[in-house]
Amino acid sequence: LPPPRNLHRASSLAATRHLRYDTEHGAVFCKSRSRDAHAEAVFEAEAAALRALRAATLACDEIRVPLPLGTGATTFGGGYLLTEWIDMSPLALSHSHSHSRAHSHTHSHAHEDGAVAAGSALSPESHAHARVAAALGRGLAQLHSVPPPPACQNSFGFTHDTFLGGVRQPNAWEETFCDFFVKRRLRVGLDAADAAIQ
């Protein structure tokens, strides 16, 4: 393989690196962390979450969730996650003046229902970004309307524990959201804070 392209300059040995590998079968995306005892478990949980999201978005044509290709341990006590490569671009408006121009036209383009049509004030590129943002909103709405799989109905949790920084977040199943939030989030956070000040 040719050397990977580093997409993000790591600030420390424990920082997450974002790499692109160009293979004979196409590009792949790699996240890796070195010298991190939790890294392999973190990426295993992330891969599981991606698989769950992909399953939930099979009928959604607005969102594409990257396919996880594998996880594993690195030589220096860390871990990595490989996914398919997806070409992306930022949603931010490229012309800073477009917003101010659109704002200045708000009153003259207001409809009776209160909606604003400021299309003439936005650049073509800004229109493209707006369409993508709208598609993302529709996709997220579709995602949150998908019913849970039968095994997860009437219960709250996940198949893998996840992490918030270096704090493991247990996701054992609970029958109510209140029980899950208190036992698996609040209590864990309080215990971690207590341990940090001991």
Write a compact overview of the structure shown:
This protein has 198 residues and is of the alpha+beta class.
Describe this structure in words.
This protein is of the alpha+beta class and 198 residues long. The protein is built from 4 helices and 7 strands, in the order βββαββααββα. It has a 5-stranded antiparallel sheet with strand order 1-2-3-5-4, with helices on one face. A two-stranded antiparallel ribbon has the order 6-7. A hairpin with an 8-residue loop joins β1 (5-8) and β2 (17-23). Residues 93-120 have low confidence and may be disordered.
Silhouette: globular
Tell me about the biggest sheet?
Answer: 5 strands, antiparallel
Q: What strand line-up does the widest sheet have?
A: 1-2-3-5-4
The whole-number mean of residue pLDDT values reads 80
Unreliable stretches (pLDDT < 50, length at least 5) are 93-120
Order of helices and strands: EEEHEEHHEEH
**N-to-C span:** 48 Å
Class from secondary-structure proportions: alpha+beta
Radius of gyration: 22 Å
Number of strands: 7
Total helical segments: 4
| Approximate helicity band | 25-40%
Q: How much β-strand is present in the residues?
A: 15-25%
Fold blueprint:
Elements: E1 5-8, E2 17-23, E3 26-33, H1 39-56, E4 68-73, E5 79-84, H2 96-104, H3 124-145, E6 162-164, E7 167-169, H4 177-196
Key attributes of the depicted protein:
alpha+beta, 5-stranded antiparallel beta sheet, two-stranded antiparallel ribbon
